[in-house]
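User: Hey, quick favor. My workstation is busy. Could you predict this chain's structure for me?
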Amino acid sequence: MDNLLSTNGLREKNLQLKKELDHAYELIQNYESLIAELRESNDSNLKRITHDLSNPLQILSMTIESLQDSPPKDIASALERMRRSTDTMTELIASIRKLRSTAASISKKTVQVI
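Assistant: No problem, here it is.
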């Protein structure tokens, strides 16, 4: 009889451990999926920011070339275009820094399986 009880107890414990392992596996799959989504989002954001940075840089570069080739009598409009371009780049750089700090804080978190 003791042998039967210990066998049943072992079976119960085995089933309980299997359920816990299945749950842990499901959590790991969910975390892997979340990490993949975050990486894809991060990649997409970086591509967008890189693209967005190239436009104001191009405007700034063209304005500088224009000023070098033939300085206008009224330089205010050229300087205003340059200022807007640098403001846009500054905002985009701030976005990149925020994205980097968010990514860094996510990567520092640990996963606990309960």
